[in-house]
Amino acid sequence: MKVKVNRKAHFNAAHRLHNPIWDEAKNLEVFGKCSNPHFHGHNYEIIVSVLGEVDPVTGYVLDMKWLKDIIAEKVEERYDHKNLNLEVEEFKNKNPTAENIVIEIWKILRKEIPLQMDLTITLYETPRNFVEFSG
Amino acid sequence: MKVKVNRKAHFNAAHRLHNPIWDEAKNLEVFGKCSNPHFHGHNYEIIVSVLGEVDPVTGYVLDMKWLKDIIAEKVEERYDHKNLNLEVEEFKNKNPTAENIVIEIWKILRKEIPLQMDLTITLYETPRNFVEFSG
Amino acid sequence: MKVKVNRKAHFNAAHRLHNPIWDEAKNLEVFGKCSNPHFHGHNYEIIVSVLGEVDPVTGYVLDMKWLKDIIAEKVEERYDHKNLNLEVEEFKNKNPTAENIVIEIWKILRKEIPLQMDLTITLYETPRNFVEFSG
Amino acid sequence: MKVKVNRKAHFNAAHRLHNPIWDEAKNLEVFGKCSNPHFHGHNYEIIVSVLGEVDPVTGYVLDMKWLKDIIAEKVEERYDHKNLNLEVEEFKNKNPTAENIVIEIWKILRKEIPLQMDLTITLYETPRNFVEFSG
Amino acid sequence: MKVKVNRKAHFNAAHRLHNPIWDEAKNLEVFGKCSNPHFHGHNYEIIVSVLGEVDPVTGYVLDMKWLKDIIAEKVEERYDHKNLNLEVEEFKNKNPTAENIVIEIWKILRKEIPLQMDLTITLYETPRNFVEFSG
Amino acid sequence: MKVKVNRKAHFNAAHRLHNPIWDEAKNLEVFGKCSNPHFHGHNYEIIVSVLGEVDPVTGYVLDMKWLKDIIAEKVEERYDHKNLNLEVEEFKNKNPTAENIVIEIWKILRKEIPLQMDLTITLYETPRNFVEFSG
User: Does the pTM exceed 0.95?
Assistant: First the structure.
């Protein structure tokens, strides 16, 4: 009896898209206004999805209060109200595209979620653009 | 040509999380304020998803009006404006967690949906917590 | 330069609609399935709206972090995961309709918001039914 | 490192459900008020989902600006503010049910998306009825 | 103690924007693709808002079940799955812009709502375009 | 016959809250993590609301296509993918709180909207925090 449980969370951050091997003209050509050197930002919304067996004693796959707290501690504290390029270790040498951010969040939470459960992260960069990663 | 068709519905209900093998102190420890013996409640939203072949004569996987009516008759009539713990047979001896509710709704609708079609139920307990079950 | 600032919050609660001067048959006639003596429940969403002058030093009407904390302390702590009829003082002798709940929340928050500012509360009982009160 | 990227778009169109092998009475029996010969209409919302490898140079699966423009050029230009039955080639002899529309949009975009990537289209006919097709 | 109560409803319809005093070229110039003679359509969402005194016996401004039924009977039955230009009396000689539709819905419901209560209608033509009328 | 017409738009920007008369410690005390000198950001959503007479010839208060284009030209071009503090003239010496941003957008659009019409701007900084200004 495997059920997928999902929890929404959010953080607000600044970023720019930029590859340091290219000059500004090439970055502008590839990333358009997202390459603005002065940064822009987003209200990122995330959905953390965990697929696992329902525990017959609690009726839970896992305690959603625990999941909420883990997301707050490991993801929100790290990314909320931050400049992803300047202040978040994993993006100092990696372009903070939605694709790369969702992979990093997955790596962070994969260490916290019991190994026998499957993990998917969905990241909304805007209400119209979103990405999903399942490992 | 398999298409997944989806229909949203909703019901409002009271419940509490509670395992009768434990005393109130242990229930409070495990389920927190969700174990309040006086109950709390939710606007549950459900999405019924059916994957099947498109009928070349109608262009339908199935008639969504029929699906809407089946959900109303089998799920909404049973759960809407009810106390799940006290009034719904399947939760008299089963903890009405979102996980257990989504499994019960799946069992109810699985009997109604043609067998060659796949069925997934998604249940939103709140806009921030939701669960999915596919059998 | 008056700006209206708005903050969303939410709580989950059980209730029933019931007037003790009437017998159950009359309550059922007037309130329908909302009068179920075993209760049902909702995810209530609230919007707290405050109209006031923008402080030229901060650029704030008021600190939204403070407003968020006041709503949590005075409204969410009082109503969240509660049975409104049985556990909330103001509804022991008052029918917890959306209209009466929004008036009570307004009275609670009116004491907290600076007097020169106008206060409106919007309460969503469901995504399809909501009420507003401005004093 | 496969990530699924998703882009939302929308178009407004008129249609009716109708099978020309049947007379109006039979069409009314099968399709109800959706068979109204004078047409009705919808705000269709679509989600285009592409699963592919993240390019290590750009950090993109594909350029979402390019995806947005392709959807506008190939789908919105073709369907927006149109009568699907009368003005869109593929529905002159095919019933424009949500199922058939989502398959046609998938066929149109499948030609544009790199072959090594998987494509899923989700089409909302209303906020309560939606369909998905993955080929 | 005046509270505003609000109820959401919806209907799906086809229409075109068109003034018969102008030729097609002028209609195209003024109304753009909305003047398509073959029609297009929308999922219209409406919010009916009624401001009135709370009845101390029921705790209601008015019975929302009654309001829901009146909207269904007077508005949804009349407009849902219709071609507004061809099938709805009031638009046979009036352009069915969002502005004109919201005024007509207001006129229809004004006759039903008790006179001492204020009525506002909000009409969403799309999630991005909406109009309000209060008489 | 005055109708209020509303149009939604959006822009993504970086900002920080900061008063230069204070040192960083005082800014941190007042603005919390919103004062981060490296900036953070938001998906701002705006609603432009115009109250005016319905033109009996067009059935419009004003042409929503024109309103959409004016918002794009005057607001989105100016604010989208920008650092509000560093790149937008009006915030070089003014703290870009939601309150101050909504006032500036109102001032920009007030010059464009016919004088006999009333203008209100609503600005969502996040889905949970929003502000309104009517002049």
Answer: yes
